[in-house]
Amino acid sequence: MMLNRSSPAVRLATRALVRNLYSSPALRFAFQPAKQVAISGLRSGLKTQSNIRNQFRYYSVIEEEPNAKVVGYEEVKALSEKPGDALIVDVREPSEYAQGHIPNAVNIPYKTSPGALGLPDDDFEMTFGFPKPTTDTELVFYCLAGVRSTAAEELAGTFGYGKRLNYVGSWEDWANHEAETPKE
Questions:
Q1: Which residues are tagged catalytic?
Q2: Looking at CB atoms within 10 Å, which of 69, 88, 103, 112 has the fewest?
Q3: Angle between helices 170-177 and 73-81 (to 10 degrees)
Q4: Quick one: 50 and 135 in the same domain?
């Protein structure tokens, strides 16, 4: 059932909203005429300035993780041929991974397991079937088009993984270059 703008329920809700707006000290100040605001501002002088300044909170970033290096097809191709140099992480869902993936890649789905790299070693191995990478392992993240891989790479940084690469061309770029891809 659609409510008509002139229905009693809509009028009552509008009145309550307007009443609450005018009873709020911050909004009452906003609705005062400009001349009245200017005069009251002159009377209170510096006191008003300090009160306004105290209304804002200051935040600082304790530590900011640097963005991962973006890599292209050629670099990922070379890394896929030497699996000991880096761990290639496919962050797509298992059904996507099964349809085709980069050779020697492991599947750690970002959407269903975003905190996987934060799991204890035993839980990680039990969940994914291979040992959890150490924090000094170079990880290359990819997905379908680079969105999930960027998010997964940033999240890995919060878990202490400093050697991160992001293949933003991801699976779409790989499939355009490769005729044959492993399937599970």
A1: 143
A2: 112
A3: 80
A4: no
